[in-house]
Amino acid sequence: MGFRKDFLWGGAVAASQVEGAWNEDGKGMSVADVATYKPNVDVKDYKKNVTVSSEDIAKAMKDFSTDIYPKRRGIDGYHHYKEDIKLFAELGFKTLRFSIAWTRIFPNGDEDTPNQRGIEYYKNVIAELRKYNIEPLVTLSHYEMPLHLAVKYNGWADKKIIDYFVKFAKVCFDNYSDVKYWLTFNEIDSVTRHPFTSAGIIPDKSDNLLQDEYQALHNQFIASAMVTKLAHEIIPGSQVGCMLTKLTTYPATAKPEDVLAAENKNLMNYYPADVQAKGEYPKLVLRFFERNNINLDITKEEKHILKENTVDFISFSYYMSMLEAGDESTLEMTAGNTVVGGKNPYLKTTAWGWSIDSVGLRTSLVQLYDRYQKPLFVVENGMGATDKVEDGKVHDGYRISYFKEHISEMKKAVDDGVDLLGYTSWAPIDLVSAGTSQMSKRYGFIYVDLDDEGNGTGKRLKKDSFEWYKNVIATNGEKL
Ligand code: BG6
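Above: the input record for the complex with 6-O-phosphono-beta-D-glucopyranose. Below: its predicted structure, written as C-alpha cells.
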C-alpha cells in the first residue's frame, strides 16, 4: 500500500524553542521566558525539578538578560525564518508544523486589541511557506502562554483564561484564514506533569494542586472545543486536531498485576484524547476523580460544547515506550519527555535515557486508530543527540538509523490499515530543548552553530541526515 499520495511529510518546531527575540516588536513575556537552563534535571523527580515558584518568576521578570533563560534567544529563528524555510523547501517539505506565540499577538493575554506587528510576523511566515508550496500546520498553544495570565490568574486553573484563548484563536483564524490544519494544545495531557509550562499554574499559588491541574486540563478541553467550532465557522474545510503525548506502556512481565497496572497507566494517558475525540469523559476517569477527591467544575453547557465539537483528527508525539508493574519497586526507572517509567531491558536508550522503540510507534498507531477511528498525524518523533562537527560535516548515522526504523514501522502501520495524514519530525533544525533548555541536545537535520551558553555564529549546516530525509520525502517513503 505505502503512504497516501498527498502524505504530509515535514518537520515540527515551536515558537519558544526557535524564535528568540523574546521582547521584540511588542512581544510580551511567556512562561517559556522564565524557564532556566537545567542540564541536570533529576529524571527520577522531574516534576519537582521543573517547578517554578512565585519568587523565581518575580526575579526573572526583573532580569532582562538571556543568560540563564535560553528560550529567550532560541536559535534566533525570528530573524532567520526565510533562510530556514528555504532549507525546509530544499528538503522537499510538504508541511511545516510551527506554533504561534500567543504573546506576540496578545502580549499579556488579556488586552482588548491585538499587537499588529505580531500578526504581521506570522503573515510573513505563512507567505514564505506558500512560496514553496509548504502547507502550514499551526499549533495555537505550545508551552508559551502569557506569563501575565499565570501570575494574575494562576493560569488555566481559572476559567477566565478560556475566553482570552478563544479571543486569541479568533484573531489567528481571521488573519490566517488560508491555513487548513490547526492543533489546539501541544501535548495537552502534560498539564499534570508540568503544570506551569503547560498551564501557567504556579504551585505555591494553589491550595489544592491536584485539583487545579485537572481543572486546568478541563478548561483547556473546553477552550479546545470552542476554538474547533470557531475554526470550522471562520475557515470552511479547516481540520482541527488534538495533540497527545503518546506514552505507550507495556506490562513489565506477564504477571496479571503488571498487566493491570500497565492498562491503568494507558487509560490515563488516553483520556484527554478520549474527551476531545469522543466528546465526553470516560466513566473510569470520573471514578478516578471521585476516589481522589477531585471535584471539577463542569457545567451542563460545557458538556454540550464537548459533545458537539469533537476534533477532526488525532495528532501525537511519539518518542519512547516504558514499563509498568503492580509493584513499582521491581522496576529500574528511566525517564524521558518529562515522564518517568520502567526501563525495558530489550531496548536501547538515547544519551538522555529515552528508550528507543520503533515497534512501539506501530503499536501506538494501531491502538489509536482502533480506539478513535479518526485520521492520525504523527506530529513529533525524533532523537536528541550530541552532534560533532568534523571538517564542516556532521555524520549523524545514529539519527538516520533512528528515523529509518521509525518510518519503516509507521509504513507497516499504514499497511495494517491505519489512516495516516502525515509525519513531521521533531525537529528538522536544532533548537533549544523544551525540557532542559539545552542547545547541545540536538534533533535536527540542520545543525545550528550555537552552544548552551548562546555562543557561536548561529550558522546553519546540513548534516548527513539532511540528504537522507530529502530522499525519503522525494520517494514518498519508498526508499529508507
Ligand atoms: C515534546 C515537546 O514533549 O518533546 C517539544 O512537544 C519538545 O516541545 C520535545 O522539544 C522533545 O523534548 P526535549 O525536552 O528534548 O526538547
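Notes for the reader.
The two ends are 16 Å apart (CA to CA).
The longest strand covers residues 135-141.
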